[in-house]
Specification:
single chain; 176 residues; mainly alpha; 2 domains; 72% helix
Length: 176
Amino acid sequence: MRRLLLVVGFASTAAGAVLVFTPLSVSGGGLTVVVLVGSALLAGGVGGLAALSRSSVTVADGSLPDPSDRGRSVPGDEVDRELAGLSTRDEETQERLRARIEAVGVGVLADQLDCSRSTARERLVASDWTDDDAAQAFFQARPPSRRDRLRTLLRGEPTFSRRARAALAALREVAA
């Protein structure tokens, strides 16, 4: 529909330019009136159809979020806070987060691949379910490469946090 509107818009603009810059528009002949009225009717008709099309699309319930809900926690907020404040030396928190994310990963893969939890755990570590290298490195617990260490120095985000976010994003894609 957008392409059609774009084509009609360009055609109308071209017709308008022709009418403005040609001698036909000065004389007010029959062809000029036909082109002008035809362009106006066509543009109006397409605009009306677009308005009708948009009026049939509604928001799910038509309400906006309540501003007082800002303080409420959302699932995943705690993990986000822990990842944001994580230090490269905080191994206890890293292991706790790794266990939580692995548990989520096993659940997601078991549901999506319709397999047992033990098979899902094997597939999670084998990482054949994603092409994201950072997600694979997270579940395989690979040590950071030189490139990862350099990235940590430049960006200030620990390799563990970056890999954890990549793993969660990859799981989100599988679950969708």
